Amino acid sequence: MRSFAPHALVLAPLALASVLAAPASAQESPTPSPTCFPPPDGEPGPCEYPPASSPTPTTTPHSDPACPAVEAVFPTSPVAVNEPVTITARVTDNGTPGTFTLRRYSPGEPVEVRRSDSATVTTYTVRLPETTGLAVSFSRPEVIDCIGGGPSYAQAVLAVRPALSIAATRTAVRSYSFTGRVLPGRGQAVALYRVDADGSRVLTSRTVSGSDGLYRIDRRFTGSGRFGFVATVGTTSTNVAGSSPVRPTLVH
User: Fold this and answer.
1) In terms of Cα–Cα distance, which of 179, 163, 191 is closest to 249?
2) CB-based contact 131:160 (threshold 8 Å)
3) pLDDT, tens digit, for every residue of 209-250?
4) 243 lies in which domain range?
5) Residues in contact with 40: Cβ distance below 8 Å, sequence separation at least 6, in sequence order
6) Which of 112, 133, 161 is the last residue of a domain?
7) 113, 130, 161 — which closes off a domain?
8) Would you say the pTM of this structure is higher than 0.90?
9) Which of 63, 26, 67 is nearest to 149 (CA)?
C-alpha cells in the first residue's frame, strides 16, 4: 500500500483557503445588473441597462494671438463729388507695425485702392466720383491665424453730393436755353424749377443728361419778369439729391 507524506494533507486546505480569501480587487468586476419592469400579461417585461460612462471632455488652450483691432475715421457723408477727402486709420492693440490696405468694395467688385506698409497709423486722401463703399484692413506678416480682438477692418459707405452747373441764354423773345453739367452725370434726370420772389418753386421742364453729364432745356415763357432758375437731380445709386446755384434771369 502506497504511503503519503504527512504534510501533503495540510497544504491542500491552505491553498483552498488562499483562493477564497483573495481580495475583491483581484477578481473581475461584476457586470451591471439590468433594471427589469413587471411582465405585462405573463410576458417578460422590458429591461434597461445602466448607460455606459462617458469620458470627461477636456479643452486645449488656444495659442493663436488676438486679431488686431482697427479704427478708422471717415469724413462726414455726403461728400462733394471729386473733392479730396481724408481717411485716417490706426491699429489699437499697441503691437508691431503691419500693412494697412484701403479697398473699394462698392460699386462693383472689391478693388485695392492703396496700401501702406510698416505702420500702426496711416492716412489716405481720395477723391470719389460717386457714392462708394470703402474698407480699411490691417495685417501683420507674422500673424496668420488669430482669434478675437478684431475686427481687423473698418468700413463705411460715403455718399457723394453731386455738382450741378446752370447757364441761361436768351434765344428769342421770352425764349431761353438752359444748359449745364451734372457730376456724376450719366443719364441723370434733371428738373428745371422757376424760383419766384417769395422763394416758392415751380417746375418748368425736365430732361435727362447725356453720357458726358451735359444737359440742355429749351423753354419759351408766356410772361415777362425777373426770376431765378435752378436745376436739380434726385437721389440715385451714384449720388444723393442735389441742386445747382440759383441763376437769376430776366425774362423778356
Assistant:
1) 179
2) yes
3) 999 999 999 999 999 999 999 999 999 999 999 999 999 999
4) 163-251
5) none
6) 161
7) 161
8) no
9) 67
pLDDT digits (tens, 9 = 90+) for 63-99: 556 677 889 999 999 999 999 999 999 988 777 888 9
Residue 22 lies in a domain: no
**160-161 vs 79-80, strand pairing mode:** parallel
Distance CA 112, CA 139 (A): 15
Tell me which residue has cell 481580495: 23
Number of domains comprising the chain: 2
Taking a C-beta distance cutoff of 8 angstroms, is the pair 149, 68 a contact?
A: yes
The rounded distance, in Å, linking the Cα atoms of 115 and 98 is 11
Per the listing, cell 480682438 goes with: 149
Please, are residues 215 and 209 in contact by the beta-carbon 8 Å criterion?
A: yes
Task: State how far the Cα of 186 lies from the Cα of 174, in Å rounded to an integer.
Answer: 30
Residue that is written with C-alpha cell 475686427 in the block:
151
Whichever domain contains 232, its CATH number is 2.60.40.730
**In angstroms, rounded to a whole number, what is the distance separating the alpha carbons of residues 105 and 215?**
31
Position 142, amino acid: E
